[in-house]
Every structure is written in C-alpha cells, then in structure tokens.
Amino acid sequence: TADLNPALLPLDWLLGTWESDEPGEGCFTTIKPFRYTETLTFSHVGQPVINFMFNAFHAENKKPLHRECGFIRMQPGSNRVAFMIAQNSDVIHARTESPGMTQKRGRVRWPAGLVEIEEGELTGQQLNLQSQALARVSFAREPHVQKVSRVIQLRPDGRLEQTVSMATDNEPLMQHLHITYRRQAA
Ligand code: HEM
C-alpha cells in the first residue's frame, strides 16, 4: 500500500472506515424527522487525493438509501479543502402529491441525482464546507437543492461528527442531518 501523499497529511485523521455509533437524525421543515445509519470510508492510493464513499441506510429495515462518493483535494500551501461529490439522493419519499413522483400513493423512490463541489477551510480537525457548484439530472424532482453546507470534525472523544445543512427552492439554509461515527478497526 502506498504512503500517504504529504499534501494530505493535515487530513490523515479522516482516513479509514467510520460507522455511525447511534442512528443519525434527519430533519427539515418540510419532511418527517427520520433516523438513519451510515458508513464512511476515506482511502487513498498515494495520489494527492482522498477517495471517499458515504453509504446511508434505513435505521430499522437496513435498506440502502442515500449514497455519496467522490474525491478530496487540498490546495497546496493552504488550509483550503475541496470535495468533489456525486450523490444518488435515493431516499424513500413518503409524500404523494408532488409532480415527478413515480407512483401516486404510498412510499416511493425519489428520482434525483446531484453533483457538488464543496469548498472550505480546515481548522485543526474541523472542516467547514460550503457548496460552490451544484448540478442535477434533468428529471430530478423538486424542490431542488440550492445550497449545502457541512461541518465534519474529529471530536476530542475520538468520534467523527457530521452536520449537514441545505437550502432548497422553498426553504432557507437549515439543518438536514446530524450524525456521529466511531472508527472501525482496520
Ligand atoms: C429529503 C437533500 C442527505 C434522507 C431531502 C430533500 C432534499 C434532500 C432536497 C427534500 C426536502 C423537501 O422536500 O423539502 C439532501 C442532500 C443531502 C441529503 C443535499 C446530502 C448533502 C441525506 C441522507 C439521508 C437522507 C444521508 C439518509 C438516509 C432523506 C429523507 C428525506 C430527505 C428520508 C425525506 C423524504 C420524504 O420527503 O419523505 N433530502 N439529502 N438525505 N432526505 Fe436528504
């Protein structure tokens, strides 16, 4: 296995696999609060790039839900960090009235698919990221995400914590997700 590229040393605390210790909490004014579990993997192959995958699951029935993956880079000589992210945005949607739904009644899959560039600063072991660019598939259902901001930090107790806020066409920036993770043994 390759040595970590020196450009990424400030982010070495992210590397490895992280498992939610207790279910994360999801909320937004327009939806029913929900709980989910999530596994994060951060890896590298010696390039000045971290590869990542975030896989979220239904807290009760364990079915795969939301997934994100992408790459992380650091601007040389600075504490500026960029995440390049692709999201499947596949969640079980409980509402029935919106256009673009794949069936009229009951719980349906939500057609979406989002890509993002998020950038921000690394301070100690805390990342503060804001979306710089967002794009989606032409048939993504509304409301469309207009802004994402997230904080990923290593807490003094050794847990990783992630908080994600978003703004949509209809709602101002507010929290959507909060979750903590425990590092899995290698
Ligand atoms: C709902 C975006 C991550 C689960 C939503 C909505 C948006 C959204 C725009 C619809 C809000 C509305 O209708 O007003 C995002 C973004 C994410 C993200 C940008 C990452 C940056 C996740 C994750 C999960 C999740 C990790 C975990 C399972 C849900 C659920 C709903 C939802 C369950 C409610 C669906 C319903 O209407 O019943 N999300 N999401 N999301 N999201 Fe996320």
CATH superfamily heading:
Calycin beta-barrel core domain
Main beta sheet? 11 strands, antiparallel
Rough shape?
globular
Q: What is the CATH architecture assignment?
A: Beta Barrel
Estimate the strand proportion: over 45%
Question: What is the β-strand count?
Answer: 13
Provide mean pLDDT, rounded. Answer: 92
CATH class group: Mainly Beta
Question: Could you say what the CATH topology is called?
Answer: Lipocalin
The residue fraction in helices comes out at under 10%
Any idea how many domains? 1
Return the structural class: mainly beta
Radius of gyration, whole Å: 17 Å
- Secondary-structure element series: EEEEEEEEEEEEE
With helices defined by DSSP (H or I, 4 residues minimum), what is the helix count?
0
Name the ligand types: protoporphyrin IX containing FE
Q: Please give the alpha-carbon distance between the first and last residues.
A: 13 Å
Would you identify the regions where 5 or more consecutive residues have pLDDT less than 50?
none
Secondary structure layout:
Layout: E1 16-20, E2 24-26, E3 34-43, E4 50-58, E5 64-74, E6 80-87, E7 92-93, E8 108-109, E9 114-123, E10 126-136, E11 145-154, E12 160-168, E13 174-183
Antiparallel strand pairs: 1-3, 1-13, 2-3, 2-13, 3-4, 4-5, 5-6, 6-9, 7-8, 9-10, 10-11, 11-12, 12-13
The chain binds protoporphyrin IX containing FE.
Residues 26, 28, 30-31, 34, 36, 56, 65-66, 87, 91, 93-95, 143, 145, 148, 164, 166, 168, 176-177 line the site of protoporphyrin IX containing FE.
